[in-house]
Design brief:
8-stranded mixed β-sheet; binds glutamic acid
Length: about 250
């Protein structure tokens, strides 16, 4: 079993089809994380879902796509999300912490060192850091492509032994994921220059990322020596299954 991992959870795993926060699934993920903690695994959670949670809190507001609108959603949604995480982790006797970061924080040496020191201290104290992009500050060109990129950077920063990316699909397929003839690609070589042939044009709604960025981040991270497992965050016991047997999902290593 890995000793230090980063787990990234996408908006589509944290919200239901009708856009509401999926408390049941978040609770199941927290149970799985708590189980890993009990086994002595150090972990950092990178969680999207702030904008989605914010939309639930302001149901009568039409999303006009304006920057300020997104800032409002994320600012109120982040509180909602952290409130939920705090309660669920507390049910396991665990503390969690909020870490918000921007792309600039990974470019600025002082910010980088400060963040790394904070992660070390939190992990030392058995606290679960819950990381998200600081969506209030990060707009347009200051933004990460998506939280997959943020998760890849965090994995390298903390020297993780594995990065798990949970989304609403099983992984990479050799055709449209919902087509009966499509096969799940279980292993991708990060040095295979043709791996992006598995990226399907259509992306799921909700989050900002898609399989194209997932694969790009996964190959970059794997080339840096950190294996990446992509799996469906709605499958029961997915974390354990991916980490123990790398199944069912796509492993990039
Ligand atoms: N930071 C955004 C949120 O919490 C998500 C970005 C993404 O979809 O990757 O809602």
């Amino acid at each position: 079993m890995y000793q230090r991992i980063v787990i990234k959870v996408g908006t589509n795993v944290l919200t239901r089809a009708d856009g509401r926060v999926d408390i049941t699934n978040i609770s199941s993920l927290v149970d799985q994380i708590a189980h890993l903690k009990q086994r002595g695994v150090e972990l950092v959670l990178v969680s999207s879902g702030a904008v989605g949670a914010g939309k639930e809190l302001l149901p009568n507001r039409t999303d006009d796509g304006a920057v300020a609108q997104r800032q409002v959603y994320s600012a109120i949604g982040q509180v909602r999300l952290m409130e939920l995480y705090r309660q669920l982790f507390a049910g396991h006797g665990l503390l969690c912490a909020q870490v918000l970061a921007t792309k600039g924080d990974f470019r600025d040496d002082l910010h980088y060192d400060n963040m790394l020191n904070c992660f070390r201290a939190l992990l030392m104290d058995q606290i679960v850091p819950v990381v998200n992009e600081n969506d209030v500050v990060a707009v347009t060109e200051l933004m990460f492509t998506d939280n997959d990129e943020l998760a890849g950077l965090v994995a390298r920063m903390v020297g993780a032994e594995a990065l798990v990316i949970l989304s609403s699909v099983e992984g990479l397929y050799d055709g449209p994921p919902d087509a009966a003839e499509s096969r799940l690609i279980t292993r991708v070589d990060p040095d295979d220059p043709t791996a992006d042939r598995y990226v399907q044009a259509r992306k799921t709604s909700g989050g900002r990322g898609g399989m194209a960025t997932k694969l790009r981040i996964a190959t970059e991270t794997a080339r840096a020596g950190i294996p990446v497992m992509i799996g469906n965050g709605r499958r029961p016991g997915i974390l354990h299954r991916l980490l123990e047997s790398e199944w069912p999902g796509t492993t990039v290593r």
